[in-house]
């Protein structure tokens, strides 16, 4: 699942080297991007973040495992 999220996020941002996607406990996929790219991942009113979560939810249903996506700021705080 991390590969899918990393692909989606890297296609949206300018600084592709700063993208970090990790799988944490309880099947949580954490995404960290450069501070200047944060708006591109969140989108207006969180629409892009919601779309990423929808794609992950559909893919996780196919696998039979429930994943959640968390977008983190550079300092580790949850952004959305």
> Can you tell me the CATH class?
Alpha Beta
Largest sheet: 3 strands, mixed
The shape, in one word, is globular
* Strand elements, count: 3
SSE-based structural type: alpha+beta
What is the percent of helical residues?
A: 40-55%
**Mean pLDDT value:** 90
Question: Could you write a compact summary of the structure shown?
Answer:
The protein has 80 residues and is an alpha+beta fold. The chain has helices at residues 2-12, 38-42, 47-63, and strands at 20-23, 28-32, 68-72.
Question: How would you describe this structure to a colleague?
Answer:
The protein is of the alpha+beta class and 80 residues long. The protein has a single domain (2-72), classed as GMP Synthetase, Chain A, domain 3 (2-Layer Sandwich). The chain has 3 helices and 3 strands; from the N terminus they run αββααβ. The chain has helices at 2-12, 38-42, 47-63, and strands spanning 20-23, 28-32, 68-72. A 3-stranded mixed sheet has the order 1-2-3, with helices on one face. The longest helix is centred in the last third of the chain and has 17 residues, at 47-63.
